[in-house]
Amino acid sequence: MEILLKERQENGKMGNNIVYTYGGGLYINMTNRCTNKCEFCVRQMTDGLGGADSLWLDREPEVSEVIEALKAFRAEDYEEIIFCGYGEPAMRLDDVLEVARYLKEHTDTKVRINTNGLADLIYGKRTAPMLEGVIDRVSISLNEADAEAYDALCHPTFGKESYDAILTYIRDVKQYVEDVAVSVVSCIPKDAVERCGKIAEDLDVKFKVR
Question: Per its UniProt record, what InterPro entries does this chain match (predicted)?
Answer without folding.
Answer: Aldolase_TIM, Radical_SAM_PqqE_MftC-like, rSAM, rSAM_sf, rSAM_TatD-assoc, rSAM_TatD-assoc_bac
